[in-house]
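Q: Structure tokens for this one, please.
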Amino acid sequence: MSNDTGHGHHHDSSHGHHHDAAHPDWDVMGPLLERNAELSSGQYTQAARWIATRPDAPKVRRIVDIGSGPGVIACLLAEAFPEAEVVAVDGTPALLERTRDRAHRLGLGDRVTTLHADLPAELGRAGEADLIWAGNALHHLGDQRAALAGFAGLLRPGGTVALVEGGLQPRQLPRDLGFGRPGLEERLDVIQAEAFEQMRADLPGTKRETEDWAALFTAVGLAPQGTRSFLLDLPAPLTDVARDHVIAEFGRRRAGLGERLDAEDNAMLDRLLDPEDPAGLHRRTDTFLLLARTVHLGRKA
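A: Here is the predicted structure, written as tokens:
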């Protein structure tokens, strides 16, 4: 299941699993996913500290990162919980290799290990945990309630599931770009939400679920422990790294959604992606990056 950015529930590009018949070029996608997660490292670090400093937080000795992608967050979790071992679980060997490389570079190789597993079928291989982190991964599993029950089954007493789900869609451009119809990003959101719904419909064993995460925690025997959102606010002018991220995201949307867009919006995207166009993303001085990620906690008694 490949966590791509942009739909009604906001993906963050930080994790990667297979969920369709496509075979991405992981030599290209791996660095993109890594950079995307690195841009949000402040958000994830804040979330980890929130979990670690809760007054009722048990000692965290073992963390399982479900859908760990290139391992940016797995390594952040290892740094936030210095006494814990972290198991990065993913279905893509190339991303797990990036995880091992990152952990080694950061001196975390003795505490961050990887597990290649097909989810949800092989979830049990992840073993027991004090903290399960599922960052924009649950909605890539057809039966979300069953998957969440599987997470709960791995938790030690007092353990926590941290779901990153929902939040706010990214905003990167002014409403009126000075060309084309104003409101391009809002129109892209609508199309992306339709694509997301199709992705959900195509998942094996998919079941519709009211996205009341506290109620779902309760349904699988976990006590809701609160929800917090964490803001990424990179104002204009962007750094080169952040600008490259925005350009890559719009390029991905142009490639993935182009057939669903009208000619005028496709033409707007083509202008935005043209390195020579003064109104394009490469040269605009008003491009920014603003989004929120929401974390929901559930605890095992």
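A few notes: The CA atoms of residues 105 and 273 lie 34 Å apart. Residues 1-21 have pLDDT under 50 and may be disordered.
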